[in-house]
Design a protein that fits this description.
heterodimer; A: 138 residues; alpha+beta; Sufe protein. Chain: A; 3 strands; 40% helix; globular; B: alpha/beta; Aspartate Aminotransferase, domain 1; Aspartate Aminotransferase, domain 2; 2 domains; four-stranded antiparallel beta sheet; 13 helices; NIF_FeS_clus_asmbl_NifU_N (chain A); ISCU (chain A); iron ion binding (chain A)
């Protein structure tokens, strides 16, 4: 299968690989997927307590090139966004941006789940109610 | 200068040896007759070429030329052998014994026959990829008509003890069929010494052309018969109709002759390169060879690099090195290799595997390049793997509750 240029670029030069201190109350961590399915994504956000904007986002991903590229792209998009804006990131936005083929849709779904898991982790740490998301029907 | 890309997927297919191509060429434009045309010199010349190739093919495996049935490849030969025996020996029984790690051409043929009433036993293998011969013997019943076990496995290269297998089968009067696609031309195969009754093999795995293969069908002690699966002009002693692929067969014959002459030297040159590659890659932490390392084809190595995913790993060098992964990370097939899973590998290790298939044209320079690229990419991907980080932090990944879709 041929990968799109954008997938290759993120794979070769991944943005924001790394780890944030998950014990900090400003950091939200989402860990999704499972080794047995060949994809595990860990996405972290750090929220600025003053501006309430995501000031840093980091990922580590075990998975195929599309999974790595999808998570890298998500961190780029997350930086500078508010939580409300971040939850608007839809898996199909990732699919369109990276030209993911149908067999790789699950990579984008996983990223969406990782973003939402990271946001809820942050909300939980800060005494905020968890957001409930509709189950994915992709 | 190293010419890129490097081809290390010789278990999938091999390039044609130029000497094979040279032998084939006249049979496209000069000697183009139908080998079944008995009434003119074009046909005679084609038939003569086929007869000669049949001798070359037979000689490689210690068979009589009359025992070679040309087919379109090993898949067709597997189908003809298994379906053909099932139909021909229906009066004797309906039980077939095979293994969990056969090629799909055998497994899916068996599944097809199960729908028609066959009983199939799929023998398990241990972590080395070996079957238990006691289990094989215990599985044989008065209804057993065929033991179908591959000579060498395509993914891990492990070689089965065909001689012991056939000794057991013979004791119970059961026919032995083997898919020798990976073994023929790479290691010595002798149908008489090995006690093989039917054997499928293919030209394109041994530096011959694609689209041609053969089924060996024993003619003496016992005389084996198969029911034809393709009806028509009654070619190949009625067992496989269809105009013979003369250039392909000529190429197959030449490929067999070259393998017979050179396989020992090839193996002596290739195995040390394979061993060097393997040793260097095992320097990486948490990397493991899959299957037996002692009882194995000389050109194959299957390695899992824990905590990196195979497809993602290959993307790091798939423009410069042609390899195959045991992982297929698509929504259509999230299942990693069934062969590796049969060895008892967890899904995580099965997803992390790469198969290296060296060949006649592999060079030391290519191996150096491959060692460098694979090592760099594994290290790079581990730096971005959450699993690697957890492992390094001493987290037991089995204690984590992963999501289950």
């Amino acid at each position: 299968m041929a990968y799109s240029e954008k997938v290759l670029d993120h794979y070769n030069n991944p943005k924001n690989v790394g780890t944030l201190d998950k014990s900090k109350s400003t950091v939200g961590t989402g860990l999704v997927g499972a080794p047995e399915y060949g994809d595990v994504m860990r996405l972290q956000i750090e929220v600025d307590p003053v501006t309430q904007l995501i000031r840093d986002a980091r990922f580590k991903t075990f998975g195929c090139g599309s999974a790595i590229a999808s998570s890298s792209l998500a961190t780029v998009w997350l930086k500078g966004k508010s939580i409300d804006e971040a939850i608007q990131i839809h898996n199909m936005d990732i699919v369109e941006e990276l030209n993911l083929p149908p067999v790789k849709l699950h990579c984008s779904v996983l990223v969406e789940e990782a973003i939402r898991a990271a946001i809820n982790d942050y909300r939980q740490k800060n005494g905020l109610a968890l957001l409930h998301f509709e189950a994915h029907n992709n | 200068m190293l010419k890129l890309p490097v081809y290390l997927d010789n278990n999938a297919t091999t390039p044609c040896d130029p000497r094979v191509v040279e032998a084939m060429l006249p049979y496209f434009t000069e000697v183009y007759g139908n080998a079944a045309s008995r009434s003119h010199p074009f046909g005679w010349a084609a038939e003569e070429a086929v007869d000669y190739a049949r001798e070359q093919v037979a000689k490689l495996i210690g068979a009589d030329p009359k025992e070679i049935i040309f087919t379109s490849g090993a898949t067709e030969a597997d189908n003809l052998a298994i379906k053909g025996v099932y139909e021909m020996y229906a009066a004797k029984g309906n039980h077939i014994i095979t293994t969990e790690i056969e090629h799909k051409a055998v497994l899916d043929t068996c599944k097809h026959l199960e729908k028609q009433g066959a009983l199939v036993t799929y023998l398990k293998v241990n972590k080395e990829g070996a079957i238990d011969l006691k289990e094989l013997e215990a599985a044989i019943t008065p209804q057993t008509i065929l033991v179908a076990i591959m000579y060498a496995n395509n993914e891990i290269g492990v070689i089965n003890p065909i001689r012991e297998i056939s000794t057991i089968a013979k004791r119970h009067g059961v026919l032995v069929m083997t898919d020798a696609s990976q073994a023929a031309g790479k290691i010595p195969v002798d149908v008489n010494a090995d006690g093989i009754d039917l054997m499928a093999f293919s030209a394109h795995k041994m530096y011959g052309p694609k689209g041609v293969g053969a089924l060996y069908v024993r003619r003496k002690s016992p005389r084996v018969k198969v029911t034809a699966q393709i009806d028509g002009g009654g070619h190949e002693r009625g067992m496989r109709s269809g105009t013979l692929n003369v250039p392909g067969i000529v190429g197959f014959g030449k490929a067999c002759e070259l393998c017979q002459l050179e396989m020992e030297e090839d193996a002596k040159r290739i195995a040390p390169m394979r061993d060097r590659l393997e040793k260097a890659l095992l320097q990486l932490e948490e990397s493991y060879v899959n299957g037996s390392t002692t009882n194995r084809l000389p050109q194959t190595s299957n390695i899992s690099f824990k905590y990196v995913e195979g497809e993602g790993l290959m993307m790091g060098f798939n423009k410069t090195i042609a390899l195959s992964s045991g992982s297929a990370c698509t929504s259509a097939s999230l299942e990693p290799s069934y062969v590796l899973k049969a060895l008892g590998l967890g899904d995580d290790l099965a997803h992390s595997s790469i198969r290296f298939g060296l060949g006649r044209y592999t060079t030391d320079e290519q191996i150096d390049y491959t060692i460098q690229c694979v090592t760099d990419t594994v290290n790079k991907l581990r730096d971005m793997s959450p699993l690697w980080e957890m492992f390094k932090d001493g987290v037991d990944l089995d204690t984590i509750e992963w999501e289950h879709h």
